[in-house]
Specification:
Jelly Rolls, 2 domains, five-stranded antiparallel beta sheet, alpha+beta, 27% helix
């Protein structure tokens, strides 16, 4: 479960933290920042959801996380990162708190006890994000996820095994069935999944949050 920045903070502490921040609102689909952009702000989601993604090939990206209420993104800016390592996009209308590096320094200097507590929450969030990224990397290697341009995803083993899959989307929806094929499209690869009623679903790969595969394929692993 993702770490909530507000957990463990009293109502008055949350109010003091919010007072040190600016507020911003983003429409669904609006980019908060893009990979490679400069910036020294950290963002906290008040309402809504933000998708964090990273480019892995031309016109193909991969979801690293979906940040919900109390979640933080852009946190590397607080430790001196000069450019954004990923892209943040609002999944739905989203309200965020925005705190600059200097602003956080001033906040922590004025309220050391609360500043230390918030730093502890940031550390927990960083650890959680690192674990999620490590899991993603492990899964990518495990399933041979190799992307060339907007082409093959290296899912041939799943296709060959006709394994049952469960595809979870960044919207929270999911599709269960068999992966039939991967098709090219202008917006990136599409996964074609047949559900148990033999209905077909075209799933844009960039909308996939996770892919679980049944034991039929796991048994073939060396």
């Amino acid at each position: 479960m993702a770490v909530d920045l507000f957990d463990g903070l009293a109502d008055d502490e949350v109010a003091r933290l919010k007072a040190a921040c600016k507020q911003a609102r983003y429409a669904a689909g609006q980019v908060v920042f893009a990979e490679g952009d400069g910036g020294d702000e950290v963002f906290v989601v008040e309402h809504g959801r933000v998708r964090i993604s990273k480019d892995i090939a031309v016109e193909v990206d991969r979801t690293l996380a979906v940040v919900e209420r109390g979640g933080v993104f852009g946190e590397l800016a607080l430790v001196g990162a000069e450019t954004r390592s990923a892209t943040a996009t609002a999944v739905e209308p989203t309200d965020v708190l925005v705190l600059t590096r200097d602003g956080f320094g001033a906040f922590a200097a004025a309220d050391p006890a609360l500043g230390l507590k918030v730093v502890g929450r940031f550390a927990a969030i960083l650890a959680d994000r690192l674990q999620a990224t490590t899991d993603l990397l492990r899964d990518t290697v495990r399933w041979g996820l190799e992307v060339s341009g907007a082409a093959a995803l290296g899912l041939h083993r799943i296709l060959h095994a006709k394994a049952a899959v469960e595809v979870r989307l960044i919207t929270g929806d999911h599709v269960a069935g068999r992966l039939l094929k991967v098709e090219r499209a202008d917006g990136g690869p599409l996964l074609v999944v047949a559900d148990h009623a033999e209905g077909l679903h075209l799933v844009p790969y960039h909308a996939v949050a996770s892919l679980r595969v049944g034991r039929a394929l796991l048994a073939q692993e060396v």
